[in-house]
Every structure is written in C-alpha cells, then in structure tokens.
C-alpha cells in the first residue's frame, strides 16, 4: 500500500466559543485523509476489487490516525463520516468502490462499535477542491445533535489520476445543539 498512498493529512478542529457562548469543554472534530493513486483512472475497468481492497485498508489506517489525534479511546468517538474526491480522470464508481463495500467494517472495529450507516459524500474535482465529510452519530442515525460536517481540502490533491479518501470523527455533537430529536442518552430506549 505504501506506493499507492502519496500523503496522509490529519486535521484537528476545536471549537471553544459558539456564537458568543464559551463552551464548558471544546467540541472536537478530526479528519484523516489519504491521497491515493487510482489504478482504474483514465480507462474503463470492469473489476474494481483492487479499489475495494484499498478501501478496506484505509478503513483501518485512517480511523486509527484520527482516534490517535483525538486522544480518546475509539469507543468514546461519537460521530463518524467518510468522503472521497475523485480526480478528473476517475469515475464516481471508483469512489464507491473505496467507500462502500469494505471500508466500514474496519472503521467500526477501530471505534469499538458503529451501528448506524456511515454518512458519505463523493465528488469529482480538480486539485485543491473542498469536500464536506458528512457526520452522524455512530450508533443511531436519528441523533440530530450529531448531524454535522467537516470540511476537508488538500491543496495539491487530487491530481487527475488520484483520489482523496477522508474520514472524520468527533468526540461530541454540535456545540449548543438544541433542535430536539433523539438524544444520545436515549439511544438504548429508541
């Protein structure tokens, strides 16, 4: 895998004040992204098993990097999400091959759980493009306080034959969430 990954970027975002309220504790989001070569770009490839296998490897590597930066045990992560930017010579199906068949299982292992579907996004874009990694509570999709996103941008990626594969995790929901819905404390009752 080392020749496939050009770089790995991790980002920690801490919110200390929301609106004009100083938060009792920062809300923290972490993203881990890998810039990978796309073996299927520039031509039609029927069998995408190579990309599926890469997704499985990244599903272990990226969450481990993110959890380490967040500085809490994986089972204390509250939200998760994933996204892929495909370079100009790639297909949306290449992003789907990375994200959907096998990335989720090792991601959930790193987090110790994760019963909810992992929110995802994909797009084709040029170098330096931004993508919002959607976030949702890892154990129940209806916990509204955890509907969120984290913006990712790598200035020199993806090149035409690359992809940016990103995951994001949080240690909490949105700061000062107050729009109702299922509370994380009530997941077991839902």
Major beta sheet, specifics? Answer: 7 strands, mixed
**Beta-strand content:** 35-45%
Main structural class:
alpha+beta
Unreliable spans? none
Order of helices and strands: EEHEHHEEEE
The coarse silhouette is globular
What Rg is obtained from the alpha carbons, in whole angstroms? 17 Å
Q: What count of helical segments does DSSP give?
A: 3
Overall pLDDT:
96
First CA to last CA: what distance? Answer: 41 Å
The helix content is 10-25%
Query: What is the count of β-strands?
Result: 7
Molecular structure report:
With 190 residues, this protein is an alpha+beta fold. Helices cover 20% and strands 35% of the residues. It is built from 3 helices and 7 strands. The chain has helices at residues 49-70, 92-99, 104-111; strands spanning 5-18, 21-37, 79-86, 120-124, 130-137, 148-153, 162-170. Strands 1, 2, 3, 4, 5, 6 and 7 form a 7-stranded mixed sheet that branches. Helix 1 (49-70) packs parallel to helix 3 (104-111). The protein starts with a strand and ends in a 20-residue tail after the last strand. The relative contact order is 0.23. The mean pLDDT is 96.
């Amino acid at each position: 895998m080392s020749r496939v990954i050009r770089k790995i970027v991790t980002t920690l975002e801490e919110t200390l004040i929301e609106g004009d309220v100083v938060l009792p504790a920062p809300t923290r989001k972490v993203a881990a992204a890998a810039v990978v070569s796309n073996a299927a770009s520039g031509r039609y490839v029927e069998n995408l098993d190579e990309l599926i296998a890469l997704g499985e490897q990244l599903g272990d590597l990226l969450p481990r990097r993110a959890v380490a930066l967040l500085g809490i045990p994986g089972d204390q992560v509250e939200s998760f999400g994933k996204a892929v930017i495909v370079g100009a010579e790639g297909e949306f199906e290449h992003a789907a091959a990375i994200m959907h068949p096998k990335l989720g299982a090792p991601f959930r292992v790193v987090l110790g759980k994760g019963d909810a579907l992992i929110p995802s996004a994909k797009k084709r874009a040029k170098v330096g493009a931004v993508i919002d990694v959607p976030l949702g509570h890892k154990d129940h999709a209806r916990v509204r306080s955890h509907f969120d996103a984290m913006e990712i941008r790598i200035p020199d990626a993806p090149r035409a034959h690359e992809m940016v594969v990103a995951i994001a995790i949080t240690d909490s929901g949105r700061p000062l969430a107050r729009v109702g819905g299922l509370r994380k404390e009530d997941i077991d009752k839902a």
